[in-house]
From TrEMBL:
Keyword Nucleotide-binding: no
Organism this protein belongs to: Chitinophaga ginsengisoli
InterPro entries per UniProt: ChrR-like_cupin_dom, RmlC-like_jellyroll, RmlC_Cupin_sf
Official protein name in the record: Quercetin dioxygenase-like cupin family protein
Pfam annotation, one family: Cupin_7
SUPFAM superfamilies according to UniProt: RmlC-like cupins
Record carries keyword Oxidoreductase: yes
Domain ChrR-like cupin positions: 12-112
Keywords carried by this UniProt record: Dioxygenase, Oxidoreductase
Gene Ontology MF term list: dioxygenase activity
Length: 123
């Protein structure tokens, strides 16, 4: 186990709005039309973002997938549809490990996701 020096300056852990820009969501070479992402926390050990913002344009969708380690979702704006259940601004969803679903929206939405492990696309 190697010693890791942890910064004691809280500024090293703050993400400012001006520091980040929306980027098209591209995973494993697949561009998800109408979905943009901002990484809020990149886990160096996992080599992936574990806390993200996703912005869905009206009509955008993310395919049916599995969450090996579960996920947490908070709706910041708009409405998102998970397995025919509409979540609105201020709603929170926890899915347990192994939960499978798709995400879509008719209105557009912005979501905060905490995804401990990479999702597995199932379609």
């Amino acid at each position: 186990m190697k010693n890791t020096v942890i910064s004691t300056d809280i500024n090293d852990y703050v993400v400012r709005k001006a520091q980040k820009e929306w980027q098209p969501l591209v995973e494993k070479g697949i561009h998800y039309t109408g979905i943009s992402v901002i990484s809020l926390h990149y886990d160096q050990q996992k080599e992936r973002s574990t806390t993200i913002l996703l912005r869905f344009e009206p009509g955008a969708s993310y395919p049916y997938h599995n969450h090996p380690a579960g996920e947490e979702v908070y709706v910041l704006s708009g409405e998102a549809i998970f397995e025919n259940v509409v979540l609105s601004e201020g709603d929170y969803l926890y899915t347990p490990p192994g939960f499978k679903h798709a995400v879509t929206t008719t209105t557009g939405c912005t979501l905060l996701f905490v995804v401990p492990e990479e999702v597995e696309i199932l379609v």
